[in-house]
Amino acid sequence: MPKVKKVVLAYSGGVDTSICIPFLKEKYGVSEVITFVADLGQGDDLEKISDKALKSGASQSIVGKLVEPFVDRYAFPAIRANALYSDKYPLSTALARPLIAESLVANARKFDADAVAHGCTGKGNDQVRFDLAINALGPDLRIITPAREWNMSREEAIAYGERFGIPAPVSKKSPYSIDVNLLGRSIEAGFLEDPFLAPEEDVFEMTSSIESAPNKPEEIEIEFRNGFPVAIDNEYLKPVELIKKANHLAGKHGFGRIDMIEDRVVGIKSREIYETPGILLLIKAHQELESLTLSPDVIDFKNLIDKKWSRLVYQGFWFGPLKNALDCFINATQETVTGTVKIKLFKGNAIIVGRSSKNNSLYREDLATYSHNDTFNHRSAEGFIYMWGMSNKIWAEANIDSSKEK
Ligand code: ARG
Fold first, then answer.
1. Which of 120, 154, 274, 276 has the CB geometry, 3.0–4.6 Å to 127, for a possible disulfide?
2. Does the pLDDT at position 308 exceed 90?
């Protein structure tokens, strides 16, 4: 392998990504490591993390403010796609990876690096998402993945770091493996690896437990324009603020916790806990508005497209031809998804209690009503059913011989 001069490393400040820095130099002969820290709204002290990168041997440390593009270009399209992997997981972690990969590649270009690196292990989904996105955006760049190769236990990793002046973590290590961004938290490992054991309360930070959620329900209204959420309770908000408000409201009422068995890309099943209150609420509301404003055939087909979209994004194909084509379909359906959804939040539930759309509703009271205002022509049903059921009748006459019974 030719020697690598400069590498841009995705850096989180944890033990693994910290020891990547000396490891890249020692084992791969890299002369310069530039770290990239992504601000995705996780609420960490990024200057401190950036500082740690420099102390761990990075020549430069970049902090990328990615919260806005994360919401605008990743979370909002996911809401339009009602994105739920396995009908459950709103892709909070998965959506962040291609965006981080974008920045890694852009910084590699800026600093004329010949490689990028990340600290993902060999059995997760994140490595797949990073590598596929980097390959799509910078196919000439080498990808170095120390954690797939070093085979160190946590203790060995800490000891290795100490050799290079990287201090062992001071705070008691959480027993869990956690990934956080503005959309939510993913919690794995520790006792959660037994899928029969219920999560304990210390796992959660963004959502109340059902027990401690308010005893009084709260009714809220979410307004959408062209499939994008724009206001909550008539307060028009910028996308990032809107997500924050949705997180707060849903989280307060204990809505947005997920406990599931997940099929990872690498073929293994894993037990995953998520709390993703805001995006889950917004997807639920969006889907409801679609039921009012889209025709039944479009809804039917879009369900398939949404499912496929979610799977592709989960599996790392954010930058790919099929994803692009599905986006075109989804975008074409969203022009009329404008209106308001009313939701009651109460003790872990988000119950849809109303929906309206001034200009795009396909609901027609004059046709749906059972009152005397009914304009539906009941008699035309006979002819319709005659033909609608014809092939079934022919089949029944040929195959169901009632005289043979008994
Ligand atoms: N299983 C989830 C996903 O694939 C969460 C991964 C969390 N990542 C992490 N590094 N802890 O999207």
1. 120
2. yes
Q: How far is the CA of 179 from the centre of ligand 1 (A)?
A: 7
* Percent of the chain at pLDDT exceeding 90: 88
Test site for ligand 1: of 125, 130, 258, most ligand atoms within 8 A of the Cβ = 125
Is 126 one of the catalytic residues?
yes
Structure tokens at 117: 């690196």
pLDDT digit string, tens, across residues 10-29: 999 988 899 999 999 999 99
Q: What phi and psi, each to the nearest 5 degrees, are found at residue 315?
A: -85, 5
Cα(17) to centroid(ligand 1), Å: 16
Ligand 1 nearest-atom number relative to CA 94: 12
The pLDDT mean for the chain works out to 95
CA distance 163 to 95: 36
Q: Which atom of ligand 1 is nearest to 264's Cα? A: 4
Choice among 11-20, 75-84, 382-391 with the minimum mean pLDDT: 11-20
Phi, then psi, of 375 in degrees rounded to 5: -110, 5
C-alpha 43/C-alpha 182 separation (Å) is 8
- Asked if 311 is an active-site residue, the reply is no
Using CB atoms within 10 A of its CB, is residue 265 exposed (0-12), middle (13-18) or buried (19+)? middle
Tell me how far apart the alpha carbons of residues 245 and 41 are, in angstroms, rounded to a whole number.
14
The backbone region for 172, taken as left when phi is positive above 0, alpha when psi lies in -120 to 50, beta otherwise, is beta
Q: What 3 state SS string does 153-179 have?
A: CHHHHHHHHHHCCCCCCCCCCCCCEEE
- Mean pLDDT, to the nearest integer, of 200-216? 97
For the cut 60, the answer to whether the pLDDT of residue 153 exceeds it is yes
Q: What is the pLDDT of residues 89-109, one digit of tens each?
A: 999 999 999 999 999 999 999
Contact 141, 114 (CB under 8 A): yes
Is the whole-model pTM more than 0.85? yes
Q: What residues does ligand 1 touch, defined as CB less than 6 Å away? A: 93-94, 125-126, 177, 179, 186, 188, 262, 272
